[in-house]
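This part of the workshop introduces the protein records we will be handling. To make this concrete, we reproduce a full record directly below:
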Amino acid sequence: MSPRSSEQFEQIRHQKQKHIMEVSLRLFGAAGYHSTSISHIAKEAGISKGLLYNYFDSKEALLLQILDKGMNTLFAHYLAIDPRHFNREHMRAFIAKSFAVLQDNPVYWRLYFQVLLQPGVMEMYQDKLARIYQHFITVSHAYFVHMGFKNPSTEILLFGALLDGLSLQYILSPETFPLQTIRDELIERYCSPQT
């Protein structure tokens, strides 16, 4: 058997980090972030506590990486686009992506929102979240002005609230929520010029 390449080691490391993050999210969602110890995470992940620290510097760093993963999954496409060039196709893709990531893994998102809403967790993530939302606001405002919405600033709040609320509705009842119909309605509302 030949020795592993650096690419193979990196792939193994990535898979182990992913496993630790999945276990941690499940534990944080079930017992709470503050009540879940690094020892418990390591035990559930099937590794030693010392080895866990080879992958994550601290429980807070682990949590922040979990939250980053969720936000990046949702907003990577949105954040990559210059606000001056954001158009209907970009908005359609963003709305479709938002619903697709929910549909692909509702259990992950249920736990993600549970963890995000725990006392003290949002404060740890506040600065990073503020940067993401600032770009979201800048891009959305330019888009809503271009599309002819009467009050773009209010529309941003409504759009964000709709996405959050619809996401939570789907997470709470994925079997009965008409995801595709709601997605299509949002696309129609936000990808058609206002008259």
Remarks:
- The chain has a mean pLDDT of 88.
- The chain has nine helices and no strands.
- The chain has two domains: 1-56, 66-191.
- The first helix runs from residue 6 to 31.
